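pasting for ref. prot 1 ->
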Amino acid sequence: MTEENKSNRRVLTGVVVSSKNDKTIVVRVETLIQHPLYKKFIRRHKKFMAHDPANECGMGDTVRIIEHRPLSRRKRWHLVQIMEKAV
């Protein structure tokens, strides 16, 4: 069992929108929600700051992040893997 399977931490997938900070990436995660009355699906997005210890991510990469203990004021996520590198 891996660390992410045995815990109840949230795992999200998103796109890196900024990697300018040292050991930090900003990941934009999109979700689809259904409107309660009209039943139309609406895209919602939120940005998360995640820890990237090796500075290996670049803008446009698709990554998977996991919930983690607080590392700074806004950084509570950790990079798990890079799923797809940007061209």
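and prot 2 ->
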Amino acid sequence: MKSEQWRSTTILAVRHGDKVALGGDGQVSLGQTVVKANASKIRKLFDDRVLVGFAGATADAFALLERYEAKLGDFQGNVPRAATELAKEWRLDRALRRLEAMMLTVDAQNVLLLSGTGDVISPTDGIMGIGSGGSYALASARALAKHTTLSAGEIVRESLGIAADICVYTNSNIAVEELDCKS
């Protein structure tokens, strides 16, 4: 018998205008069953100057989140450096390589995707989506950013709502956090 697969989220980051927003839905599913509808998958770190969202196996994501927070402390909140160091550790450490999670992290200057393959990716347009409904939210956010005057937070909320209407592993219990990008 094949074991059930955890499906656990959609996370979206949008840099637009003078704001950057990160949002996620609240659904955690095991196979075809919703086991939690209001999970919190967005965290504020480093004196609320860094936002992190995670998708994938929950315990794995929390393990990575703790390590990332430590790296932020080690590098005085330098998001690209902390992300790169975590990605290196994630790729090289035998135990970490088995973790099944992805993270988006944002601050006033950066939107970054971190993956277990050692990737640290900064999107050209400041928009990135991960998780079960990540592609749907990403497509919606790109269209809204290009053709509306909505704020970053509004784009995230609307795009996650659209993803929830399409992806069975995404719900409409949406949480969004914003940071000011002004210097």
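The first strand starts at residue 6 and ends at 7.
The chain has one domain: 6-173.
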